Known about the structure:
Elements lengths: L2 H27 L13 H6 L15 H17 L2 H18 L9 H26 L5 H31 L3 H19 L4 H30 L4
Helix pairs in contact: 1-3, 1-4, 1-8, 3-5, 4-5, 4-6, 5-6, 6-7, 7-8
Amino acid sequence: xxxxxxxxxxxxxxxxxxxxxxxxxxxxxxxxxxxxxxxxxxxxxxxxxxxxxxxxxxxxxxxxxxxxxxxxxxxxxxxxxxxxxxxxxxxxxxxxxxxxxxxxxxxxxxxxxxxxxxxxxxxxxxxxxxxxxxxxxxxxxxxxxxxxxxxxxxxxxxxxxxxxxxxxxxxxxxxxxxxxxxxxxxxxxxxxxxxxxxxxxxxxxxxxxxxxxxxxxxxxxxxxxxxxxxx
Length: 231
């Protein structure tokens, strides 16, 4: 194994750990429950896929619950500015590894994986602008239109990269990882086709969560075996 391959294995583990740690932090920072539009279960997903003022009701107004939810959304999205560097970097390193192991066509998806970073940051900035608009009681309709585009640029790029990884795992006969990738990629595609139906956004989010935990743990184990082989 070349030195570059070893470095990418180590890098994948580091970025995988960063993805899990930041994900856990945001889990506790973002609001965990609220009165949401029917079909949504998690406030952050309801916010990210909001299409109307009704979807933003749990963030609107001067009452204590809405004020608290806005404050926690603001705090969470500040952490979320770091998150895409972790998970998109992780995906890019996995693609790089496949290329180094012979499936070089997967390198074509590395720029797309890196584009997830500005796509996600753009989405976060729009979400923060919506919170500001709600605080000042100004219209959010133009921002919601921008949010729809920004959100699907991010999720579309991620879905394409996950589909590419799925094919890579199939090529290496890693069928469990391929199955997880296929479930996540199909969930993203189904959600897009269904025009962000609330129930499907929650399924998609859960599928991505499982995928990143599984892939990160796999990367950690791989790095451990490479750098601390059994004697």
